[in-house]
Amino acid sequence: MKKLFLFALASIAMLSSCSSDDSVKVTEDKLTKKWYYKSYQANGDTDAYDHLPCAKDYVEFLPNGSYTEFYINDCTPLETGSSTGSWVLEGNTVAVAIDGENYNGKITKLSDTQLQLTIRADYDDDGDEENVKVNFTNN
Fold first, then answer.
1. pLDDT at 93
2. Is 9 exposed, middle or buried (0-12, 13-18, 19+ CB in 10 A)?
3. Which of 59, 85, 102, 131 has the fewest CB within 10 Å, making it most exposed?
4. What is the DSSP secondary structure assignment for residue 31, as one 8-state letter?
5. Taking Cα atoms as reference points, which of 103, 106, 105 lies closest to residue 83?
6. What is the pTM of this model?
7. What pLDDT is stored for residue 2 in this prediction?
8. How far is CA 52 from CA 47, 48, 56, 67, 105, in A?
9. Are 93 and 107 in contact (CB under 8 A)?
10. pLDDT means per 10 residues in the chain (139 residues)?
11. Rounded to whole angstroms, what are the CA distances from 51 to 46, 54, 58?
12. 16 neighbors 104 (Cβ within 8 angstroms)
């Protein structure tokens, strides 16, 4: 399951959620930082993100509009990877562009320490997309 979301903003076709939560106060100041994967919520289940012991996978939104996703494939020997692109904030939706591909996620929670993106993805590999909440923390 970890590999399914290693590129949560990059390799899954992320679509804005059908539900709305316009009460979330989204600001670029709160969004622009490094966010570590924490968990996923789908179909009534919450699954913790399985970080490797040598480092944590993360996404980072930089103030200049740059976006980076960093991940660890293996600890011994250390094998890492990354994707870079750009991002823009459109209301409560963050849009990311990487290598000519565009992805969107609805920000359904944002504080100084927590970020939650709601996306549409086939979380359980049944061929149907579900609403999936991807939870991040900044520590």
1. 96
2. buried
3. 102
4. H
5. 103
6. 0.83
7. 37
8. 15, 12, 7, 22, 25
9. yes
10. 38 38 82 97 95 96 97 96 96 93 94 95 92 96
11. 16, 8, 10
12. yes
Give the closest residue to 137 by CA, choosing from 70, 26, 66, 56: 56
Long-range contacts from 41-47, C-beta under 8 angstroms, 24+ separation: 41/132, 41/133, 41/135, 42/123, 42/124, 42/130, 42/131, 42/132, 42/133, 43/123, 43/124, 43/130, 47/1
CB-count exposure of residue 46 (10 Å: 0-12, 13-18, 19+): exposed
Q: What is the pLDDT of residue 14?
A: 38
**Backbone torsions φ then ψ of 29, nearest 5 degrees:** -60, -40
Q: Which two tokens stand for residue 56?
A: 């944590």
